[in-house]
Amino acid sequence: QVQLVESGGGLVQPGGTLRLSCTTSGTIFSIHVMGWYRQAPGKQRELVANIMSGVTNYVDSVKDRFTISRDNAKRTLYLQMNSLKSEDTALYYCNSVPAVWSWGQGTQVTVSS
Question: Helix, strand or coil for residue 104?
């Protein structure tokens, strides 16, 4: 059974930075397209970034501010978030793309002054 554990969230002021991590177990991590998703209160979960074989894609709202990366040896996915805005406030999750595994608990990111 695949397990996903997200961490690294927190409360940060606008313009601040955070680095999220997602550790995985129970799967051959390296063969999957992996992504970061987020769900803000009252909104649907959305895919904000994905990565496979060094190729990355971002939703327009985070482009040039977020950077997704992965360490296949550690089976870990990362999301470097810079220049954070209040609209980035959400619960952040990782999963494959498309999402086929059970969701982890997520990590809360709150951007507020």
Answer: coil
Strand partners, 108: 91
User: What secondary structure does DSSP assign to 18-83, as a single string?
Assistant: EEEEEEEESS-GGGS-EEEEEE-TTS--EEEEEEETTEEEE-TTTTTTEEEEEETTTTEEEEEE-S
Residue with tokens 């982890």: 104
Per-residue pLDDT of the chain (113 residues; tens, 9 = 90+): 899 999 999 999 999 999 999 999 888 888 899 999 999 999 999 999 999 988 999 999 999 999 999 999 999 999 999 999 999 999 999 999 999 999 999 999 999 99
Beta strands 107-111 and 10-12 are parallel
